[in-house]
Write a structure and sequence with these properties.
- This protein has 191 residues and is an alpha/beta fold.
- The chain has 5 helices and 7 strands; from the N terminus they run βαβββαβαβαβα.
- It has a single domain, classed as 3-Layer(aba) Sandwich (Rossmann fold).
- Strands 2-3-4-1-5-6-7 form a 7-stranded mixed sheet, sandwiched between helices.
- β5, α3 and β6 form a beta-alpha-beta unit.
- The chain is globular.
Amino acid sequence: MAFSGSENRATRSTKIVVSGGFGAGKTTFVGAVSEIMPLRTEAVMTQASVGLDDLSATPNKTTTTVAMDFGRISIDQELVLYLFGSPGQNRFWFMWDDLVRGAIGAVVLVDTRRLEDCFGPIDFFEARNLPFVVAINAFDGLLRHRPEDVREALQLGSEVPVLVCDARERESAKQTLISVVEHALATWSRA
């Protein structure tokens, strides 16, 4: 008996890591797009973080991710993405190897007010040959720098997609994730 269309297709799932610097919007991104209540491991910032966490660009920030965020989104009936948001501070990078294990790709979420925070995640993914896209988080709808300028500042090759997104908006985050999947497929097909 022959089946046509999607009747015979199994649902596939895959893992994507959402990364970036401290306060770039990773928790917000996962929460905006997840179809389940996201798991968050946020803790209230204490005096112990004074001098370690730069709050100058995010003075109202009172919590920080200490392990990961987890969410899920069904792109269609055939593809489910599991999202793992990484902590942004360098002192939590020891868990990144575990977070990226089995991932097909990553998002490096960029706050252009602190562009230097992106170099660590970019170097990490490049060293592991994990396809990634750079997503400029347009906080409050403001785009302070053009994608071409961000690409140049981060010294990214033309093969790395540089996008603009609003981490608060579901559709914007979803389109970013679709770009990660497409970029990963294109990267793996060239390998």
